[in-house]
What does this fold into?
Amino acid sequence: MIPVVIVGAGPTGLTAARLLAGRGVECLVLDRWESVYPQPRAVHLDDEVYRILARMGLGERFAATSRPCYGLRLVDSGMRVLAEFRRGALDGRHGYPEANMFDQPDLEHLLRSDLPSAVTLRGNVEVTGIDQYAGSVRVEFTDRVTGASSTVRARYLLGCDGANSLVRASIGATMRDLGFAQRWLVVDIATDAELGQWDGVHQVCDRNRAATYMRIGDRRYRWEFRLASDETAQDYGDIVQLHPLIEPWTRQVPIEELELVRTAEYTFRAQTADRWRDRRVFLLGDAAHLTPPFIGQGMGAGLRDAANLAWKLAGVIDQTLPESALDTYQTEREPHARALIRLAKLIGHAMTEGGTMANRVRRALAPCLHLIPGIKDRILSSQTPALHSSSLVLRTRLRRGLVGKLCPNAVLTDGRRFDDVVAGQFAIVTSTTPSPTQRATAERHAAVLIQAHPGDDLYDWLHHERALVAVVRPDWTVLYAGRDLTKACVAMPIQPTSTQTDKLLSGRSSAATPTGVE
It folds into this structure.
């Protein structure tokens, strides 16, 4: 019996497989396509999601195929700049650019390359049946080339099979509509010519023809235009038909130098599944939630699902976590995904809805946004909401500041990052001096202990919220924060190991990495 079967080899499914394999869990990934779907789709991810890619060892290769985005410009229908928000330093609190443009097929090729030996990827198969038993899930699938049928049993099944999820249907879950539906034309253009445009996202705030423009590569560009009720993508099937729409950005380039890569019509929706788990079956990514694209968090939400679930599932499989840890998945992820969906809806309505009066209001108010204290940081911030309370997010009325949020990937005094030292383990970060007993407790729980000192970024992070200690989960979420190191040790949810783990980092945060930390 295979520990985990994953249905769907898109970014969410492959991320889940790689993260599980990194913890020694064997996975079988089933996908209906033989190779990467070649058409462009998602084009943006933030520094938190970039951090997940880096955790899988893909950070440098992603950097070579992506392009940092330098901010947001709001324009009216005549392309007059209403407001502009430029990003400063490229690297954010997670150690990577806060906004990154990329081509999804490039990312999927990257995720498929050099797969760990614990991952088996089988394409050109159609999953036809899913049945659950007391201790397993039975998966039936058919080879799309030969027609041969096969069956496999797994301890757990992850449904990463998109908006039309068969896995979701198999557990009787349904999508709940959150009140948003807009039809948009998505256009991808390639050209060797320089368009001469500002290198950030352009948002056209216009009720009649809302639009978005962004550069996603050295020679790739993306436009999105809201369609009128009587329009379809077929009305813009060639570059001549498209030219009136993209001409405000391409007027300096001869039309024959513009290569139309793709046009497609999408209905942007806001939906979440009513349940994300049925016993041994879990939903991730678009199978669990759909969001409008206005804040660029659609694909990233799926990778966050994978990062949240993978370490818990691995812990249950190797019996270092109780089975109840899996109950926290939807408890934590659904409110987080819903909050980002609400924000995307708000931004979408603000930029695209209303009539002539709304356009006048936008033209009047947008140029004044920079006068509002903190508005630039709020608009450009990649920081997402804290996770809700669960048995793995111990929030209290007195200690809410850090708990549920992500520990920064701080630079330590020797130049290494937090993630390089912790390497996917639990961590205890403290600004107090641990006693021998506390050090031994951390070691028994296979936790990395980092003692921060004045001047360290982690020291400032703790003391900004008046905490002396924080327990950080493998997905960088703060499980517990307070002023008592002994309580922090007790809060560790993993079962104490019976052998020496050598996962302890004592002394200053610049100390040598302990044996066993990768």
